[in-house]
Amino acid sequence: MRILRALLVGATASAVTLIVPPLAADAAPTAPYTVFTNSAAGVSSPLRGTDVYEPGSATFTWQPGANDALGMTVVRSGYTVDLDIAPPTGQSWTAGTNYVTNYSGNSTTASLQLTAGGSACSTATTSGSLSVKEVERAEGLITAFAATYSSNCPNFAPINGEIRWNSSVGFVATKADTEKLDFGSDYVGGTGLRKTVTLTAKGSEPSVVLATAIEGANPNAFAIVADTCDGQTLAAGATCLVTVEARATAAAAQQAILNVGINGVVDQAAFPLTVTGKIGAKGTYYKMSPARIMDTRSGLGTTKAAIGAGGVRHLQVTGRGGVPGTGVGAVVLNVTVVSPSAAGYLTVFPTGVARPTASSVNFAKGWTGANSVTVAVGTGGQVDIYNAVGSAGVIVDVAGYYAGTESHINSYGLGGQYQPIKPRRILDTRKWGEKLPTEYFTSVAMNFGDSDNYHIKAFVVNITAFSPDGNGFLTAWDGNEEIPATSTLNFTKGKTVPNMAIVPVGPCWLCEGEWMNRPSISVYTSKTTHILIDVVGVMDDSSFTDGLRFTPSTPTRIADSRTGLGLPNGLSAGETDVVTAPNSVITKPNTEALALNVTAVNPTASTWLTVWPNGIAGISQPTVSSLNPAKGQTVPNAVITQVGPTSAFNVFNQAGTTQVLIDVVGSYWLYPGTASGTLAAGQGVGKEPVYRLNPTSASGSIHRG
After folding, report:
1. Domain 181-278 is of which CATH architecture?
2. Same fold across 181-278 and 548-670
3. Is residue 451 classed as helix, strand or coil in its secondary structure?
4. Residue-wise over 133-143: b if at least 16 C-beta within 10 A, else e?
5. Per the count of CB atoms within 10 A, which of 59, 79, 91, 525 is most buried?
6. Where in the sequence is the signal peptide annotated (predicted)?
7. Segment 432-444 mean pLDDT
8. C-alpha angle 395-399-405 in degrees, rounded to nearest 5
9. How does pLDDT run across 17-35, given as a tens digit for each residue?
């Protein structure tokens, strides 16, 4: 029973029903004012959302009673709101007084009862407040009233608003077109779902929007991406919009509140935000057995002819060699140049975009060599291969790919994430005192611990052929019995040639003792040579924490020491320079590593270069090489390097002087779905990293191919 009914016993009361025509859409209300407003940041509240009940769209019935009791019933479109208030026992309402309220009231506390749509705020522990601004009486009954109210039900979200009846006191009121923003389910790390709130000023006084902010339990799971409200003053009928984007940070239900501060009240308009995160595949790596998809010598995948000067070949990569036909964002290729007629370079880039100022493979006349190239897939699932000068035969092997859609997981499962490890050399046959013989292979195993070994899917390595006895090639694979009919790098007699590769692992079935069945890779040589293998990371199965996902980009040159771009000059012997990646190639604020193509141009002495992150405590120059050019040789190599807090990395040259070119082909970023903590703002790795994996390695074993 409403308290007003009890208070009316033995008293004379009257009910006043107010029905008036609606105001023009953009007209401000005029005195005397009758209105009821509410703002509630919770879908479980009796009153939900930010709303305004006004004459013309709603019917008001006011019932004043004895002892200053006042009842209100407002009906709009069949929805009924009842409000009953009464001052503390034995008192009357006094304008300019703030009253503490609860459900039933007593000698020191006013009574406030609120029911909406049949739901009541009716427990003994209900609390709130009523700030009376105006009260007029005639014959002992209230005839005009103005107040600001709040009600805090234990089981509901707080409600606040304005009450006006026949009042001369103006008011601020804002109406929203929605009570909440429910994004449903979205992929973790996604940025696709957006929803908008439209606010309309409905008061006699302007609505001054002081600020908009996202607060609550999971504020990082949402972002304001467009806002015409913040700092605006809205006259009656004026509107503004706030657009929010869901950015789920965990595979779970996440909630926050969009607060809009109006006329000094920080949460005058408050909207619940909800999204349920789910794991998707975009940016994860899918390993493959290497497969040849182009050979200009035989016409495989292209015209049977070398690529001429200025020529471009469109290469279909999706749907071939084990690459799916859809859902592919980038492919990892091994691109080999065969017998070019002149010194030059190839550029590999997505079909459909303008050819960038970058190089993928640089070569001398007559040189046969390869480079690992990671490239985004372009129009029609193709990539373009451009040859600058002369003519050159080209061979392309595909070694893996990165998912380009979240839904790729539905058909192909979840790919792997990149886990950097502290760079280390895991094989150097020079320590054996002999080279790996012709048509032999070596298997190299690593031990990450019994609980982790099973989750390692590929090694990210730099493989170097050192001082080969003749022309030949190396093939890296997972060690299964059949050696693939592909090459990882090609070398010529006496030349030191590196190449980066992401090599699938297999159990080391030829290893002995504790190394039996550990994750391993194998490397076959067609000609006797020393082999060096440096590991910089692994691809897991996305079950480890703090994994990195990949976003490809059109190749972008960020350093060219010949022109002073990114590097002031060529690197002299023993010199280390710092390269800072521009914001244009940092695709996400939590970017931790970059995929590069680094080229040494015409060194004055045989040398080696090393690339490593700048500005990270605990990471000093590693004892590994990134590329190994001979005197006068122009040599490219793919490099994956972490970057420091300013998105910078170091480049060291060991001997002579060399010019250096650096192109960015993509970035690796910390995936929030498996991050071990809250993502920090800013770029790069800001403190000494704690590597998730710290493996030990075994010496390679030798086997006949």
Report:
1. Sandwich (2.60)
2. no
3. helix
4. bbbeeeeebbe
5. 525
6. 1-27
7. 92
8. 120
9. 554 444 445 578 899 999 9
Alpha helix (H) ranges present in 124-165? none
User: Domains of the chain: which residue ranges?
Assistant: 3-171, 181-278, 282-413, 418-544+699-704, 548-670
Residue among 137, 551, 541 at smallest CA distance from 330 = 551
Chain Cα centroid distance, residue 628: 35
The sign of the CA dihedral 187, 190, 195, 199 is positive
Question: What are 148-179's pLDDT values in tens digits?
Answer: 999 887 766 678 899 999 999 999 988 889 88
Measured CA distances, 129 to 262, 408, 490 (Å): 19, 54, 81
CA angle 262, 267, 269 (to 5 degrees): 70
Contact indicator for 639, 608 with CB cutoff of 8 Å: no
In this structure, what are the phi and psi dihedrals at residue 662, rounded to the nearest 5 degrees? -135, 125
Q: Which H or E run includes 408? A: helix 408-412
8 A C-beta contact, residue 320 and residue 350: no
d(CA 613, CA 579): 10
Q: Give the pLDDT confidence of 500-534 residue by residue, as tens digits.
A: 999 999 998 888 788 888 899 999 999 999 999 99
The H or E element that residue 450 is part of is helix 450-453
Residue 603 corresponds to which tokens in the numbers above?
């060194």
Residue corresponding to tokens 């605006």: 232
Residue type, 200: T
The secondary structure element, H or E, covering residue 410 is: helix 408-412
Spatial distance between the Cα atoms of 84 and 1, rounded to a whole number of angstroms: 11
The span from the CA of 185 to the CA of 277, in Å, is 6
State the DSSP code for 342: S
Burial environment of residue 665 by CB neighbours within 10 A (0 to 12, 13 to 18, 19 or more): buried
Judge contact between 228 and 234, C-beta under 8 A: no
Residue type (1 letter), 310: G
Q: What is the largest CA-CA distance in the chain?
A: 115
* Residue 142: φ, ψ to 5°: -65, 135
pTM over cut 0.90: no
**Nearest by Cα to 157 from 128, 182, 198, 181:** 128
Inter-residue contact 243 to 226 (CB < 8 Å): yes
The listed CATH number (2.60.120, 1.10.287, 2.40.128, 1.10.8) that belongs to domain 282-413: 2.60.120
The token pair at 159 is 């409600």
Containing 3, the helix (H) or strand (E) segment is: helix 3-7
Can you state the percent helix, strand and coil of the chain, rounding each to 5?
Answer: 5, 50, 45
The kind and range of the H/E element at 409 are helix 408-412
CA distance 419 to 132: 62
pLDDT score for 678: 54
- Contact (Cβ atoms closer than 8 angstroms) between residue 390 and residue 347: no
pLDDT higher at 691 or 518: 518
